[in-house]
Amino acid sequence: MAGKHRNSNARKLSRRQLLAVAALAPAAGVVGATDVRGSAPAPVVEEAVAADTAVPEVIVPVVDRFRGRTPVAWGMDLPGIVHSVPTVPGRRTLALTFDACGGGVGVAEEAKLIAVLREFAVPATLFLNSRWITVNPQLMRSIIDDPLFSVQNHGTRHLPLSASGRPAYGIPGTVSVDDALAEVTGNRDSVREQFGHEMTWCRSGTAQYDDVCVDMCNASGIRIAGFTTNTDHGATASAAQISATIRNMPDGAIGFGHMNHPGSGTADGVRDAVGQLKNQGVQFMKMT
After folding, report:
1. Residue of 176, 162, 182, 171 lying closest to 222 (CA atoms)
2. Could you give the domains of the chain?
């Protein structure tokens, strides 16, 4: 009887692991998105992964493979980072994305930007940091419930993802692959628990990575969103500059801006740009 009971447990564990691996495998809805370097297509999944597909016993062995590996590349433009979206022949397609980095600042600006996107019915992807979510739970619920927006992950502590603590812009990076994974999954898991929402894309604080963390994230089923065009230059550009930059984005481009920097021209620049682009028949899409 004891031997029979052990065999039953073994079958249960094996089946659970197989289901988890299947959940992380590419689905039939995956389409290619070529990044700006013209490297091999990176996956863009059109449907969000169900909240119960992240299984720790699959993720942990994946991370094990990257412990002790020495990074050899650093930046925003590494293989494995998605820099563009699928295009439609004969129709220009753009994806606007905006980061909310901290909490308690820029409330008027972010509300103004969201109102502009809603006014013009422009889909957008919003990358939200844990600190911003903590301060703005009602707005978080509002945008999660709005099908116009894709709500995605901007990290827990707003740190660049590094396997060795490498900083970016004076902000210290994560110190190991385990720390990098915690930076991503901390915010993701908190949002899943509090709001029942699954974040399937991540953009790190500063949007900087080393190659080890990029590979580890991709192997763990975490997709990294890069960008083609910096639309507001770190929330320092004027409304006129932002409008011109967005209007000149190439077909398939991902635009990267900020949504909660007080005094920035982001909302006004977006209003001017999307009004003109929609009149030209430009299609906007979100990353899901």
Report:
1. 182
2. 43-284 (3.20.20.370)
